[in-house]
Write a structure and sequence with these properties.
mainly alpha; single chain; 74% helix; 0% strand
Length: 113
């Protein structure tokens, strides 16, 4: 465990970049096949479309992964930040809800800001 901690402390940037790449891949891979669009999403999309054009909600999930790392590093240290950002980037339930456009999708992002 000590060697793992030393490795993370030494290669901070080299660790977060692959985690962010995994986060991007898992959120954008076959996104069109898994997109669920019901009446709820249609209403929210029509409101959001008037505010923002050509913005993908998946980028909020990727930004949240980075915010989890930054917040975790400030509060708990690099080891905890790396593990928590990796979990956020790869947990299937979080990825599923990051792909949907509805109000709870922005909860994690706004909480970390």
């Amino acid at each position: 465990m000590k060697a793992f901690k030393v490795f993370i402390l030494r290669y901070k940037i080299g660790i977060i970049v692959p985690i962010l790449l995994i986060s991007i891949f898992l959120r954008f891979y076959k996104v069109q096949d898994l997109f669920v669009f019901t009446g709820d999403e249609e209403h929210q999309l029509s409101i959001a479309q008037t505010i923002v054009k050509n913005f993908h909600i998946e980028w909020v999930g990727v930004a949240t992964t980075l915010l989890v790392y930054i917040t975790g590093r400030i509060i708990f240290g690099s080891v905890t930040a790396t593990m928590s950002s990796f979990l956020y980037a790869t947990l299937p339930l979080i990825i599923y809800y990051d792909r949907k456009f509805w109000n709870p999708a922005l909860t994690s992002f706004t909480s970390l800001i």
